[in-house]
Give the backbone structure.
Amino acid sequence: MRNNKSQRKICRKASGGRTVVHIKKKKPEHVLCYVCGAKLNRAKLTGSQIKKLPKTKRRPQRPYPELCSKCMRKKIKETVK
Ligand SMILES: [Zn+2]
């Protein structure tokens, strides 16, 4: 069995009391704000699914798309000072 980064292993109980390792695709994870760590309200998609989307649908159309809206406001106020 090859170790694949895009797969995850799940142990399942099968009949007869034996455990079987099932291999499933990894679920995409939440995108986090890198300042406060809040979950960003964004579609959870894998890399290949994101590439199919137009660029405008991959991220919000505002400054600092990698931050949550609260941190973006703070950051803008800091830069103005
Ligand atoms: Zn934040």
About this structure: The longest helix spans residues 69-80.
